[in-house]
């Protein structure tokens, strides 16, 4: 059986290849990809801006995907064939101290992640360890399920923030992570749920997903020190420092965005005087994945509402060009 894939040979160079369907090794499965999301980290891979050690060329990208198990390899349950599924991206060792403590996203083995160091979902098929699968209901919308990877990251942030009913909550950033955070947080009955993003185009969608207000960042509009919990999702140069300033004294801030060197630092004087709790999130643990998948299966989140564009593999370049551009562009999918 043939199988197509997008291969990024080096920064700025890609091709669509047509070869033989990959075969699973012991403990692995082959998944037929139904949909794969493109995010800014995929742009970083293509542009050559991903940090050394966190990408391996040539590469089949794609870490946000969903599909159906087509082949079960030796030592795996044959009943997996035909099941709709997603899979954790981090190829964890499962035996180090962090893995045994449940902090699987902090695995101390050599970094390995589907779509960055191992072939990903911008293809007809992807091979993954069966132990990383999270099975979905038989009627699951696989387009929406392709967003369960960012939903799992957001689930990790929300769980770290421990929201309580009636609290004032702010989400910094109105992109995919931010709008998924709004969906999760709205289920905790906040007293206020504000989305802070300079792109006014995101305000209407944020409100539709449960935000009580959406506003651009403005240090003079009375938001400073207002919120019990702040979830930062943007990863922009100033948003970590901004998020901390938004939290009330004794409040909490969770940093979810991936920051580049040179980002504005957090004022340690403000941090200590305000007695803030600041957490950060790196990827999603197995527990966060399970949380996100359960929430999706129960209808508590609607990732499909974020999708604005879908392209076949042949139009990978067109799809990639949309990411990070027009503020009206939401999640862009490849549909193998």
What labels would you give this structure?
336 residues, Rossmann fold, seven-stranded mixed beta sheet, six-stranded parallel beta sheet, 10 helices, 15 strands, 2 domains
- How much of the sequence lies in strands comes to 25-35%
Number of strands: 15
Could you tell me the radius of gyration in angstroms?
20 Å
SS-based class: alpha/beta
The low-pLDDT segments are none
In the CATH hierarchy, the architecture of the largest domain is: Alpha-Beta Complex
Describe what this molecule looks like in 3D:
The model has no long low-confidence stretch (mean pLDDT 95). Helix 6 (201-208) links the parallel strand 9 and strand 10 (213-215). The protein folds into two domains: 2-146 and 302-334, Medium-chain alcohol dehydrogenases, catalytic domain (Quinone Oxidoreductase, Chain A, domain 1, Alpha-Beta Complex), CATH 3.90.180; 154-280, NAD(P)-binding Rossmann-like Domain (Rossmann fold). It starts with a strand and ends with a strand. It has 336 residues and is α/β, with parallel strands linked by helices. The protein contains ten helices and 15 strands. It is globular, with a radius of gyration of 20 Å. The protein has helices at 40-47, 97-100, 142-145, 148-161, 176-186, 201-208, 239-246, 268-274, 286-297, 316-322; strands at residues 2-10, 13-20, 28-38, 64-72, 84-87, 125-129, 133-135, 168-172, 192-196, 213-215, 227-232, 247-255, 277-280, 307-311, 331-334.
